Amino acid sequence: MPDKKLQLRTEHRKARPAPVQQKQIIPTGKLLLVTVAGLTTVGGFIADWNKTHLFNPNWPPHAKFHDAMSITIATFLGGAGMYLLLRKGEYLQRDTQMAAMLPAFFWASQGISFAFPGAKGLESEFPELVPRIKGVWLNEKFVAIAMLSLTGIGYTLERQRQND
């Protein structure tokens, strides 16, 4: 009788299907890079296509030209990054590197812009629109640092995954 119980337990174990290992739909690093590229692509339209920037009656036409140029550059850099991340090809590591670098150019430019004489964030004209936490403005500089940080983390994670 004990042998029969043991046999049933063994058969029961054999009958169970092996646990299915769920494949992650999109790896974390790639997800971060896709998010940054996507936000870079549409961010200018979201942030600037309004009365504070492109439709600001106090802005001269040349200032609006530069804003439109900034929106366009971000759209191209983010779109190119997205394309490189999502295409299939034999140059995966190079594509990942370029996909991280292209949107990062825009965010680095935005952050560095604060070093230019007289350049300030949105809070200089519309302080009521910019959140502030413990005295720190969550303005364009904050966003640039956050996006560059997400890019660095995403790139590191994705390259580690590719090298595994």
Question: Can you put this structure into words, describing what you see?
Answer:
It is a single chain. This protein has helices spanning 2-15, 28-48, 61-86, 92-112, 140-163, and strands spanning 132-133, 136-137. The protein is mainly alpha-helical. It has one domain (28-163). The chain has a two-stranded antiparallel sheet. The longest helix is centred in the middle third of the chain and has 26 residues, at 61-86. The model has no long low-confidence stretch (mean pLDDT 91).
Could you give a quick summary of the protein structure above?
The protein is mostly helical and 164 residues long.
SSE arrangement:
Elements: H1 2-15, H2 28-48, H3 61-86, H4 92-112, E1 132-133, E2 136-137, H5 140-163
Antiparallel strand pairs: 1-2
Transmembrane segments: 31-49, 69-86
Keywords: Membrane, Transmembrane, Transmembrane helix
Organism: Planococcus halotolerans
Distance between the termini: 50 Å
Going by helix content, strand content and strand pairing, the class is mainly alpha
Number of domains: 1
DSSP helical segment count: 5
Give a short account of the largest sheet: 2 strands, antiparallel
Biggest β-sheet: strands ordered side by side in the sheet: 1-2
Uncertain residue ranges: none
Name the helix and strand elements from N-terminus to C-terminus, one letter apiece.
HHHHEEH
